[in-house]
Amino acid sequence: MLLGEFELIHRYFSSPKLQPSRRDVYLGMGDDCALISVPEGKQLVVSVDTSTAGVHFLPESPAHSIGWRALAVSLSDLAAMGAQPAWFTLALSLPEVDEEWLSGFSQGMADLAQEYGVALVGGDTTQGALSMSVQVHGYVTPGAAWKRKGAQPGDLIYVSGELGKSACGLRKAKALLEAQQALPDLAMLNTAEASAETDMLRAYLYPKPRFDLIPILSSRAATAIDISDGLLADLGHMLSASGVGANLDPTRIPCFNKEHGDTSQVFQDALAGGDDYELCFTVSPQRRLELEVSAEQSGVRLYPIGVVTSQQGIRGLHEQSLTASGFDHFKGNT
Amino acid sequence: MLLGEFELIHRYFSSPKLQPSRRDVYLGMGDDCALISVPEGKQLVVSVDTSTAGVHFLPESPAHSIGWRALAVSLSDLAAMGAQPAWFTLALSLPEVDEEWLSGFSQGMADLAQEYGVALVGGDTTQGALSMSVQVHGYVTPGAAWKRKGAQPGDLIYVSGELGKSACGLRKAKALLEAQQALPDLAMLNTAEASAETDMLRAYLYPKPRFDLIPILSSRAATAIDISDGLLADLGHMLSASGVGANLDPTRIPCFNKEHGDTSQVFQDALAGGDDYELCFTVSPQRRLELEVSAEQSGVRLYPIGVVTSQQGIRGLHEQSLTASGFDHFKGNT
Question: CDD domains in the record, alphabetically (chains A, B) (predicted)?
């Protein structure tokens, strides 16, 4: 059955999970435009990310994961600015109308949307190669957003979690597919016994934006960025924007699977694997104690990995590891 | 030469035409997110449209036209709500980095952006089939936006210009390509002698959103929609949303090329050709005179084509013409 565009939107994208009642959404889906009343005294924070089959996700992934992930990677940029998520739009390109796929996709997106109460307010569906652009919108108090610019020599550099987990998950997923096995969806991962394997698959298929860090870092972090293109690439952007460099301590980088994996691979995954939706941020030495107390009280583990230097470039790592410079969409992994 | 994503954005999308200084844009391109200070007392109006090569535009179109058009079709949705355009984002998917194409594309987008002072505040570039999602943002006074819902029996139905012109332009463009001729860009159209041919090619390759109608329709139109999917389809959406019908006068529908073309084709183009970025709107009989005086003073021609009825459905046209129900992305033209 070939569904029309309007019926498709109505059937799959108008669930209460995707359309929670929000005071700022004055008019949601269904007209030429959505109408939003941005709360007084708030700045609007905007980010868009495209996920393309075969480039940003495995086309064989469960549709539920593809929907979840497309929203998660965009939301992660809001978290990296310290913004509270509010609403989003979806531009979806589909080769054909596959109702089972659409049902899983919209459900995955809805499951994540519901966690943060974000509303789908509009979008566009077109026929074409499988790909989706999700634009997310959130709010911050004016001046409170963490930018890339603003890191000062002497500031400490932190990351918010283990790195390389998602790269391991991607490798594991490819191995499963090669062995003709289906990839698990969230329900399967939730019922499976906890293991390094479910852990890495979850990191790759169901990343979670780190909004839980906002109260801990708020008014303490000087700069922040999410580590979606790999630590070296994204830290590099932050340092360039700030006109500074960094001295890293390789023994402090929280590598996933450190005890079990091949050391150089583990290090490579952590530095340049990508798809780890953790934050990298800087904090002045004066704020360090306050930050660490707040993190401990919240039960959140933070990892100091180095210090900002006035000399540009990243130092402290073996030369070998520095060739792992992260992902560039038109150059591939280098 | 294979450009990196960051260099690509810097080289082609950071011109002053695309980055005009705007008081509401607190932080534009280059960080994880853009930061916007929505003017106090204004509602934000949001719309996203995807343009895909081979579906929404001819891949052989001049890159300049593709860039212009991708922005124009999104802006037209803002015009249809009565919103002043402000800023936009671009999610661009490219099969390869072709610098000449990118230069033309970004220039076309910049030329239209400059006309309205809209700023490009962010985006994403990915490798994939040629396609672009443009999300536009504008402002309205709360309550002043024209919606699809709100047409009342007895209201007059208007369109803002000749219909079918763009469909003729598309046919002409295809004929030129079949004859191995290149399609003209804006500079060529501007220097060519005025003719029905340049007129229709301009309508298809370089549509202009009808922001000039806002002061004329403001506080006078009850509902409005842009005619991008064809008059019958879009008027149909407006009538359904309002729970009403319409009685149209076929002799009053302003068909492009009425004197020269084949009558049934001319009528088919006007009713269902699509890509005419004119507005269709309703006005109560009490406001009619006021509207027409205002239009005349502004030198803008408006066309009354029928009246809203309590009985649902569209009547007054020959049965034959009613089969032309407009474009559906997953059904094709029906």
Answer: ThiL
Look at residue B151 and tell me if it is in a domain.
no
Number of folded domains that form chain B: 2
What does the alpha-carbon distance between residue B30 and residue B36 come to, in Å, rounded to a whole number? Answer: 14
Write out residues 80-119 of A within 8 Å (CB-CB) of B.
Answer: 80-81, 83, 89, 91, 93, 97
ipTM of the shown complex: 0.88
Q: Kindly list the residues from chain A whose CB atom is less than 8 angstroms away from the CB atom of residue B124.
A: 48-50, 133
For the segment B252-261, what is each residue's pLDDT rounded down to a tens digit? 999 998 877 7
Distances (CA, A) of B37 to A41, A94, A182, A225, B18: 9, 34, 46, 21, 18
- Tell me: do A265 and A171 sit in the same domain: yes
Give me the domain span that covers residue B16: 5-140
User: Is the backbone of residue A332 left (phi > 0), alpha (psi -120 to 50) or beta?
Assistant: left
A 277-306 residues inside an 8 A Cβ radius of B: none
A305 within some domain: yes
pLDDT in tens, B202-261: 999 999 999 999 999 998 999 999 999 999 999 999 999 999 999 999 999 999 988 777
Residues B55 and B104 in one domain: yes
Q: Identify whether B150 is part of a domain.
A: no
Backbone φ and ψ for A4, nearest 5 degrees, come out as -75, 165
A126/B contact by beta carbon, under 8 A:
yes
B251 with B207, same domain: the answer is yes
Chain A residues lying within 8 Å of B135, measured CB to CB: 48, 89, 91, 135
Same domain, A228 and A284: yes
CATH of the domain at B59: 3.30.1330.10
What does the DSSP 8-state code read for residue B143? T
Residues in chain B within 8 Å Cβ distance of A25: none
Residue B319: CATH number of its domain: 3.90.650.10
Report which residue type is found at B163.
L
Q: Which of A52, A93, A97 sits opposite B52 (nearest CB)?
A: A93
**Claim to verify: residue A65 and residue A168 sit in the same structural domain:** no
Burial degree of A17 (CB within 10 A; 0-12, 13-18, 19+): middle
